[in-house]
Structure to design on (426 residues):
């Protein structure tokens, strides 16, 4: 039988670092990445045929669990009719209608193939619309890997200790200002000084790329009012939170209407699909109507759209989010109780179907807080849980995910394992 280690050695010969996305390489926790062969419901199997309860869910998309029969069926049906046309299809119209119906701030949406493309395009659009260059983002927020957005960009970069990426021209990085997350005062100060130069403010309305950080409502409210006052575009990057924290996403939970929003992950149900959208008078600046160019050979790919539509149908079933939220809460409350019994400086919290595990005494409120986590304790927890068949994200700076396929029994099994691991840690 091929082992994970053998395959990783082979992979490193022909793929940089052996992986096609850096955090997969286990660099921050050490050890060998698992090579998966299949998934079903809440479980995945690696190439050594060991199974794991999966709390990564492909980093968020798999809200219905692995290989959900309705999603797979939709994909197979779509694929059998052809993989791509490079011409419009009815299903693209349906998914755009559905996104606009579920998200009141969206009057129009354009489909793309990754979250990176969605945020990059939304920013170009905001710059084209306002005729300004300056971009405001927040420390620890990740918005994909386009040049303008790789400044103080959260987990992936944090894991490797670089504030920002190599290969990004200083001239481009200079157009991006990174402010502290969840800090109203510095936001107000910045806008007082330079608000009229700002094309767009982009924010994860609930941060999920520096572990999970839930901001104060006041922070997002001031982002809304300051951008409005200064004629800048407010972009909510809901690539992770969209349809993950609730049916109306983070903007629905906070009752805030951004000008533009980006989606990805859940809306593709595990296929490469993402979108950006918002107010009609902004969206109509995009080509072919407007002068802001944006395009994609595989945009709105019929197989990806089929997976997305099937996933959106599942999450619209009555009670879906009640069950999902209750499951995530059950996990976090159980972990909190187990840690308390051991007097371990650990806490956990969830919102909708996402959660944060923190090796520190209190829930973090900012990027600076997040950096105080005990990464050594996390590493020990991660590997002990992995050995016991519970797959958490291989970094202390990532959010976790439950799916609707995680049963109460699954969660109990994870809690039992965690209880033992916490006892060893304390
Ligand atoms: C994952 C993510 C992205 C990037 O999406 P990709 O599909 O990986 O390009 C952008 N923004 C946020 C908030 C994300 O979580």
């Amino acid at each position: 039988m091929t082992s994970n280690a053998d395959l990783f050695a082979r992979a490193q010969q022909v793929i940089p670092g052996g992986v096609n996305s850096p955090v997969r390489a286990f660099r921050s926790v050490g050890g060998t990445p698992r090579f998966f062969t299949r998934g079903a419901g809440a479980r995945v199997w690696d190439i050594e045929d060991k199974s794991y309860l999966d709390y990564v869910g492909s980093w968020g998309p798999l809200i219905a669990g692995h290989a959900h029969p309705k999603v797979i069926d939709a994909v197979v049906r779509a694929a059998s009719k052809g993989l791509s046309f490079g011409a419009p299809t009815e299903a693209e119209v349906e998914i755009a209608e559905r996104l606009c119906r579920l998200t009141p701030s969206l009057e129009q949406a354009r489909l793309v193939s990754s979250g990176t493309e969605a945020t990059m395009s939304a920013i170009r659009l905001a710059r084209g619309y306002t005729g300004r260059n300056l971009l405001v983002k927040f420390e620890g927020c990740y918005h994909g890997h386009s040049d303008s957005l790789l400044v103080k960009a959260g987990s992936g970069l944090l894991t490797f200790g670089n504030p920002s990426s190599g290969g990004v021209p200083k001239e481009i990085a200079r157009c991006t200002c990174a402010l502290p997350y969840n800090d109203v005062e510095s936001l107000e100060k910045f806008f007082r000084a330079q608000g009229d130069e700002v094309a767009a403010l982009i924010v994860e309305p609930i941060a999920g790329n520096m572990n999970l950080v839930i901001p104060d409502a006041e922070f997002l409210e001031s982002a809304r009012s300051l951008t409005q006052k200064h004629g800048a575009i407010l972009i909510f990057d809901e690539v992770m939170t969209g349809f993950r924290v609730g049916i109306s996403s983070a903007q629905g939970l906070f009752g805030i209407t951004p000008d533009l929003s980006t989606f990805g992950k859940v809306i593709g149900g595990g296929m490469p699909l993402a979108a950006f959208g918002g107010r009609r008078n902004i969206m109509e600046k995009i080509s072919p109507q407007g002068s802001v160019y944006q395009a994609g050979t595989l945009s709105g790919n019929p197989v990806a759209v089929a997976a997305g539509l099937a996933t959106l149908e599942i999450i619209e079933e009555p009670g879906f989010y009640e069950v999902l939220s209750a499951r995530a809460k059950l996990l976090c409350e159980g972990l909190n109780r187990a840690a308390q019994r051991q007097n371990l400086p650990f806490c956990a919290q969830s919102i909708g179907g996402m959660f944060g595990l923190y090796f520190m005494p209190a829930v973090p409120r900012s990027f600076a807080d997040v950096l105080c986590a005990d990464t050594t304790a996390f590493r020990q927890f991660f590997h002990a849980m992995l050995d016991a068949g519970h797959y958490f994200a291989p970094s202390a700076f990532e959010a976790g995910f439950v799916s609707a396929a995680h049963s109460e029994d699954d969660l109990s099994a994870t809690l039992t394992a965690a209880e033992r691991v916490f006892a060893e840690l304390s």
